[in-house]
Amino acid sequence: MLLAALDEYGMSASAVSAAELIQERVQWIAAHMRVTPATARRYLTDKAVRDLARTMAVTVADEAPGADVLASPRTAAVPVPVLGRCIAGLAEAIVLRLAERDDLDHVRTTTAQLAQALSALGQVIAGGQPSTGDTAAGIAGPVVLLPPALLNRVARYLEAPAALVRNEGAVPDGFDPAHAAQLAGTFEADAMAARYYSDGA
């Protein structure tokens, strides 16, 4: 139910993560109402689960969950080199996700989202003329105007693999684990840049 509710907002989670989240919510209800977990689970109705999904979506409201970001105003001026790094980062994130073996459905969903983000960036680039730095205060060189929501979505998509590498030791097939910290740092730096320019810097 939670996975379906999240999907309505254009979000996804692995079955394992969703189950853990539901279990945490059951334990929270049990502790605060002083009832058994079995009783607490009865309070976790379909409506409560949908409300949980909506709350999760609100926390990423700057990504306009469920909206067509390509139809959003393109007000964020992004330097071409920064955009190139974000595109490369999304591609590397796909390579990293393809190395996962535990939840293939989640791998398919996540890689599809990453590919859709790449497609969206490509469509924006193809549909607009790069502007010069003169049209974007404080930015030297050519820029591409992007929807801020798309940039924020890209940033989250880059933060997720950074956490996988840094916290779980995940690396792409054939990647030297000795360079894992550098890989995580690159994902994080690119995500920070995407968020920085999404604010109209």
Total domain units: 2
Structural class of the secondary elements? mainly alpha
Assign an overall shape: globular
Q: Which regions have little confidence, pLDDT < 50, spanning 5+ residues?
A: none
Beta-strand percentage range: under 5%
Number of helical segments? Answer: 8
Give the helices and strands as they follow along the chain. HHHHEHHEHH
How many E strands? 2
Distance between the termini: 39 Å
Assign a percent range to the helix content: 55-70%
Q: Could you report the average pLDDT, rounded to the nearest whole number?
A: 81
If you compute it from the alpha carbons, what radius of gyration comes out, rounded to the nearest whole angstrom?
Answer: 19 Å
Strand order of the largest sheet: 1-2
Summarize the main sheet.
Answer: 2 strands, antiparallel
Provide tags for this entry:
single chain, 201 residues, mainly alpha, 2 domains, 8 helices
Task: Give a brief outline of the structure.
The protein has 201 residues and is mostly helical. It contains eight helices and two strands; from the N terminus they run ααααβααβαα. The protein folds into two domains: 58 residues, no CATH class; 130 residues, no CATH class.
Q: Can you walk through the features of this model?
A:
It is a single chain. Helix 2 packs across helix 3 (37-43) and helix 5 (80-97) crosses helix 7 (148-168). The chain has 201 residues and is mainly alpha-helical. It has eight helices and two strands. It is globular, with a radius of gyration of 19 Å. A two-stranded antiparallel ribbon has the order 1-2.
